[in-house]
């Protein structure tokens, strides 16, 4: 007879591991399915020099603090090492590489179709992150542009851009950090929709997390939200961005009108030859594997949830996709709260079905 799991978790990143921590404590029969060849999930693909916004002790999953970093904030490799050790420490049952193609619901059970096998489960946690769904805005003429263009998810290091004229598009932290290192070897402009605001130098991810939590609790209590109290700015002044400021490269310009074959046309009608464009324009949600469930999704790709529980599909939870699935749930420190609540709900649900 084919095994029926209490819960199958799709994904093997920080969100899936945080859920596994609580599933293990709940003594449920579960497995994680991850399509990567090794631990680390999307951290394996981020650019080489990426460091966290916060020190190790404020970047930890439930149960075990991230070991101290060799630098002020952990490096990308240190996060991968932490996630690797976390899996081992809690002996998390995880199968990889296993790509979930489709999740359907039939006769009260989820059928999880993968390349080689079909899994059955009473409940499913989708924890597939955002990295799979990079967003590139539409600009007129982009198809005829013959220069190099790629999304920040494909950026690894600046060497190949040396000596080139490069546009970095996007006013978030990815844009600021990629600009900071590309501007050392290339002639860059930072293209943003509006002026960006920088956090004070002494404010890091800890403060942002505290601020996000305070806002969340105020909302839960139905208290009025004073936007100024919760808005310090958006760019975290990590050391590389501070260094870029000393070189005067953190200036922004408003978007170009359209592409030409060799470059762009600026709002004042000036044409310029551009060698490369890096789109630091964010991510949607990697939810294609849920297509068979026919969940309604809004224009941004979100589906209706209460906390992390799908409103439309009983037995399905979505963890780690951002504030809409739990405040600060797309961070190492924040996802534990969502995971704990999710597993508590799954335990109750399984008692009733
Ligand atoms: P992922 O890490 O994306 O893991 C999802 C896993 O599921 C992946 O292994 C993926 O391959 C797999 N998967 C997807 N689809 C399928 C499928 N159909 N079948 C099987 N497997 C599948 N967070 C912090 O806490 N601190 C920071 O300082 C910080 N800095 C960041 C800087 C940048 C530039 C970026 C982009 C993110 C940063 N984050 C930070 C956020 C954090 O990296 C992500 O939010 C986090 O990786 C999300 O974890 P996750 O487990 O939800 O998703």
Automatic annotation (TrEMBL):
This protein's UniProt keywords: Oxidoreductase
Cross-referenced SUPFAM superfamilies: FAD/NAD(P)-binding domain (SSF51905), NAD(P)-binding Rossmann-fold domains (SSF51735)
Matches recorded under InterPro entries: Auxin_biosynth/cation_transpt, FAD/NAD-bd_sf, NAD(P)-bd_dom_sf
A single MF term (Gene Ontology): monooxygenase activity
NCBIfam families per the UniProt record, alphabetical: ArsO_flavin_mono (NF040505)
Name by which UniProt lists this protein: Predicted flavoprotein CzcO associated with the cation diffusion facilitator CzcD
Species assigned in the record: Pontibacter indicus
